Amino acid sequence: MIHLDKKKVVVGMSGGVDSSVAAYVLKKQGYDVIGVTMKVWPDIEETDEREDSCCGLSAVDDARRVANLLGIPFYVMNFKEIFEKKVINYFVEEYISGRTPNPCIACNKFIKFDELLRRAHNLGAYYVATGHYAKIDYDEKNNKYMIKKSNAIAKDQTYALYHFTQNQLKHTLMPLGEFDSKEEVRKIAAELGFVNASRPDSQEICFIKDNNYGKFIANKRPEKILPGNFVDKNGKILGRHKGIPYYTIGQRKGLGIALGKPMFVVDIIPEKNQVVLGENEDVFGTTLLAEDVNLIYLDELEEGLKVQAQIRYNAKPADAKLYSEGENKVRVVFENPQRAITPGQAVVFYDGEYLIGGGTITKKVR
């Protein structure tokens, strides 16, 4: 059995400034730091060298140069097979099924804090660490680990971390949660001479070079891209669409149809290959159902639990109540209507600064 050293930590280094500064902070705190870049995209040699990409060869080079500067061991590990299975294939199948996935959450759940943690343990490291803006607290009274929002609230990334288990939290470090701003992180990187100090934040999905989801899915599964009908709420045919993976709830631009007034995607019915269009008011809803729900520190759900619920990464948490709908399923009832409740996206629950948990939206309840 491998002995796990509590002073040893594997830092997932993407080539960006955040994970680089995380490695520096942990080394400064006295940890034995090992840098690892995960080779995830199957055609990494063919990716364009977009400056904000975390998958190109330049990102690997940047991570290696930072590791050399810090004087820490550095490895590139092959995660291509599990990444394709758990992230890319999931992404494609969700869009084909009329849902809008969040591949970053899948990557965190299956790659960074699961497979990478296993490999860290194989190296004798007790911890994995990343450059996420979030904090991990330990509640001694209840013997529970908890996730807390970052000090830099504008950069907070807790929305994408609701899947954590207690065991994963026990073995995870997130040093950037204590920073008050991204500018503070960049300043440290610049002072240390990091090559990536001014590298732009990654904005797009790493494995889609041109941000064209529809084209990517069409290349992967061309037989599933089938033209169909735009319909209104009553099923009346309004025109033709080019395939449901090209559309998402709340979308107005790029519909390719003129109806004399602004129209929005309000529903997608994959079994009929229909995209339902409506007016802006039709995009709003107060109730949703979610599945695959994970509660980080609660043993069971209190009926009618008051929370602040967030339905997408850039949305603001809103007052809501939770009700059980069976094992790992909840109904979320908002105090005020929310725009574009989207199946496939995560709904995440907070109690003030603390992340309670979350799940995957399955439907908006009319």
What does this structure look like?
The chain has 366 residues and is an alpha/beta fold. Helix content is 24%, strand content 31%. It has a 6-stranded antiparallel β-barrel. The protein has a 5-stranded parallel beta sheet with strand order 3-2-1-4-7, sandwiched between helices. A 4-stranded mixed beta sheet has the order 9-8-11-10, with no helix packed on it. Helix 1 crosses helix 6 and helix 3 packs antiparallel against helix 4.
Features:
366 residues; alpha/beta; six-stranded antiparallel beta barrel; five-stranded parallel beta sheet; 24% helix
Topology at a glance:
Layout: E1 5-12, H1 17-28, E2 32-39, H2 57-70, E3 74-78, H3 80-96, H4 103-122, E4 125-129, E5 134-139, E6 144-149, H5 166-170, E7 172-173, H6 182-192, H7 213-220, E8 228-231, E9 237-241, E10 264-269, E11 274-278, E12 284-295, E13 305-310, E14 318-324, E15 330-339, E16 346-351, E17 354-365
Parallel strand pairs: 1-2, 1-4, 2-3, 4-7, 8-11
Antiparallel strand pairs: 5-6, 6-17, 8-9, 10-11, 12-15, 12-17, 13-14, 13-16, 14-15, 16-17
